[in-house]
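re: ur question from earlier - yeah i can do the single chain one, its not a big deal. heres the input i used so u can compare w yours
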Amino acid sequence: MRAGFAAALAVVASGCDIRAPGRPAPDSQVPRPDKVTSFAVLYAANCAGCHGAEGKGGAALALQDPLYLTLADDGIVRRVVGKGVPGTAMPAFAQSAGGMLTDAQVEAIVAGIRAWARPDASQGVELPPYAARVTGDAKRGSSVYAAYCSSCHGANGRGGARASSIVDGSFLALVSNQSLRTTVIVGRPELGAPDFRGNVPGRPMSPDDVSDVVAWLAAQRPEVAGQPYPARRTAMGARQ
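and the output i got, formated as tokens:
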């Protein structure tokens, strides 16, 4: 009987977990949010909502666009991810700038985005510089717009058969001049918008053309988003 009992006890013990009931397995521990450094996890949680899954574009431009990654180097991507773009829909993600991500997490995002770059994407392409070297001429920009943009966005920029308004006040209030410049240069290929080389076949936009059309677009931006309201006098006591 003793031998049988010992054998039965051994069988039961071998099928039981000797840990305390309810204690999680070592591989089931959930890491602290500030310890997550997986690019896929960080990108999905912080970037994909605007820039699309795998950086293929959404409300904001495609980060996996090889022309964009040729235009924007490591330092530019790091600055935009970490510090954001004040006054626009692009928030700061670094804790040092008021965001929620550690420096290591920002670096993980930067490294992951830059890994999408293709070294051969800019071969034979003379890109305009990322940042404007001189202030654009808004008056000349009107002519540049007519030549390169009006066929899609309409003669006055308020939309045409192939593209929507580019002078909408609410839109311009949400984007910076640099964002406009970047979009003019790299386009929005996921939406069918060409880059600086494709607006007029055989006539790529020059750096001055880019700066001038951005100055013209910026000149259409209202001082206060949502303005101007219709001017209207209301009698004292009248319902509004």
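Confidence is low (pLDDT under 50) at residues 232-240. not sure if urs matches, ping me
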